[in-house]
Amino acid sequence: MNPELIEAIRLLEKERAIDSELLFEAIEESLVSAYKREFDAKTTDNIRAEVNRTSGEMKVFLTKTVVETVTDPNVELSLEEAKSYSEEFEIGDEMEYELSPQDFGRLAAQTAKNVINQKLCNAERERIQNEFSSRIGELSVGVVQRRDHREVIVDIGRAEAVLPYNEQVRSDGYNFNQRMRFYILRVDEKKGRPIVYVSRSHPNLVRKLFENEVPEIASGVVEIVAVSREAGSRTKIAVASRDENVDPVGSCVGQRGLRVQAVMDELMGEKIDIIQWSPELESFIANSLNPAKVLRVDINEEENTARVVVPDHQLSLAIGREGQNARLAARLTGWKIDIKSESRFRELLEQEILARFTAATESAVNESDAQAEAESAANDAEAQPDAENGSEEQPGADVASAPEADLAVDSEVAQADPAIQAD
Fold first, then answer.
1. Within a 10 A sphere around the Cβ of 133, how many other Cβ atoms?
2. Domains 135-199 and 281-397 fall in the same CATH topology
3. Is 276 helix (H, G, I), strand (E, B) or coil?
4. 13-49 residue pLDDT tens
5. Given this structure, which CATH class describes domain 281-397?
6. Is 257 left (phi over 0), alpha (psi -120 to 50) or beta?
7. What is the pLDDT, as a whole number, of residue 333?
8. Of 237, 335, 395, 403, which one's alpha carbon is 20 to 30 angstroms from that of 299?
9. Is domain 135-199 annotated with CATH 1.20.1330.10?
């Protein structure tokens, strides 16, 4: 009887969620390896081990073949020796021996221990891989164990998880034995063993916390459409309802703010703005700047920008400390948001109107000048053919008038000199 072995196997099965049958098989395999180490056997094909699942009793069986000449005493048995057990043995028959594990030496026992440990590690690795690979994107309650360089080691039940530095939140503290919830990021393998990586800064941590606290979200009546977060400081979530009779914001806030306060307590006091999502983009952008009041939203779809106008006294509230409120609103909506005060918007509007008027006036003047130049050019074009016609007719006129001039001169001379006329 070996009740201690049975009790140890039951405890491993309970604590590490490893099937007891797998543990029994590991022990049987270790006994076979121990025999091979003890007797320097070349093969273990003729060796089998059994562990009683109830009593814990262990047995090792060795099978040998009856031969005429023995070449390997670990697998062969002479006919003469076989007949010492029974006269019925013949060449080619097999005989099975039962060996006592107590006969194994210290090195064989160490080998058996190593085999069991290796089997346990393999089973643990497979269990962690299978269990947590299916839980990626879910929450897990963990207890801080220690700090390792810049990482935090967390006990998440049946495994240890790693919280990387870039997934930590400064305000959390991570003190020893501090209990908190973590978001499971991924499962990787490092040095032959699986490593579960968790996060405290991921935006989906807030989403999952609200799913746990708000039954309407868990049931699908209320949906978290978008989340934008600056971990440790502030988070904005946009919620919508699939039932017109259910207020999504009120459901998340809860009676006297109990639901949202529970989430804030888990996040160590991180502020949370719950925004009413709207299919109308202007309304959604206006709501995203809550708690500031928005007067006007102008959308530029080509540049994916939105110009938002707020009262002068709420400009700093809309922008937020160091621009935090505007940044979170931009991430939440997916649009670039340009926030203007009411007075500044009026100045820009006046400048825009004046610029348009100036442009229109200049355009009219330019058009008038262009028209005048066109008319002048047309007049010049009409005058040019007349001038050309006149210059062509002038030589002919001179030729035609020349005889007339000569006749006139001759007439005058004749009148002046009668002698000449007589001639």
1. 13
2. no
3. strand
4. 777 677 788 888 888 888 888 777 777 777 777 888 8
5. alpha beta
6. left
7. 95
8. 237
9. no
